[in-house]
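I'm stuck. Protein, please.
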Amino acid sequence: MTEPTKIAINSDSFIYAVHQAFEARSKANGDFNSHLRFEPFLIGSWTSPESYDFSSFKTLLSDIIAHHIKVLPHFNRNETVTLENIAWFSHSIAALFADIEFMLVSYTGFGLPKLLSGNLPKATSSKNIVFALKKYQNYIALDSEEPREPFSLFPLLSESEEALDEHYVQEIWSLIASIAKKYLDSYFELFSSYALWKYTAKEVFVEAIDWNVRPPCGIAYRKQFKELFDREREERNARRNEKHSQRKGDKDKSSFKKEDRKPHYTQKIDKNDMVEKPKISSDLSTSTTEKLSFVIENSAQVPEKPRFEGKMQTRSAVAQQQNVFQGASSNPLEPKNQQNLEDALHEVSKAVQKMLKNKSIPEISLNPQNSFVRRQQHVVISEAGFDTESRGDARNRHVCIKRKD
């Protein structure tokens, strides 16, 4: 039985591996991060070409392809591309195309053009490549102090104003294919399969909306109504923020400090400090009215008996204290919770940047947060173009950032 790592790779798997390697090492500024690159491009010693003649152009192209064959020992050993070594082969081919793109930009101001057919062409001439080299050389030779329009290789015209675009595309790809076949030998088929997949002009199909579906859905529906969806989302967020601010204002009006609240019971007073209740005279000659007035006047001096003492509290008092505690702990905008929200959103920003830079990462799980913070994280992640999902239970509930399918 063949070991899984020794299984040969077909062209589709190889194309996918090279594409992933190219995307993972490509930077936003156009650079390509790889130690397998052509040495002058890697160490930064490359300067603009002194002469834009075809011979130096062809020599440099041969040197670049030969470098990638020598730098990877797997080519020299003529190994079969398997699961065990596909990472090296795909990395090398991705770096090779990056170097060819860089060289063409240096000589013609334009990278690899799109192929016009599904096959690598075979041309017998190189005069149109010479026209392209001269056109870019004349643009570089212009006075840099004077304002000039950005360079565009196409349309490429001859001296008689004849369009040479198709001829140039055939010649440049024919030259690359002939040199690559000379050095790559048995690996040329994999090289050409990736070139045809990436650089063949693909026909763009306009997807139609299926209005029979209720409600209509799909990518076409989303694209056509994107502005409407974005505007509706902004309005929904604005309404939610307005309600949140209004709710916060109502809470501020109704809340008051604990020390400002009236106590439900009087302060416990020592019995020694209590004023003795005056004794009512038992003289029967005193009228009933005088006795009542005496009792009323002196009863104000007697402190009110506490309604409850110690740990005995009424049910309403306990409920009010619990409401005050819950209100203080659930307010999401307290300084402590505000700092927690800022830290959580900063964690989201770092995770999103990491996934944008490294497209091989399928998902990232964030730290557990409460429902309010997770809701804010869902909004920020969705606006960044990723899918979100809440995972875990209870205190371990957290947000997971995923790439869209």
Remarks:
- The longest strand covers residues 387-391.
- The beta strands are 363-365, 387-391, 398-402.
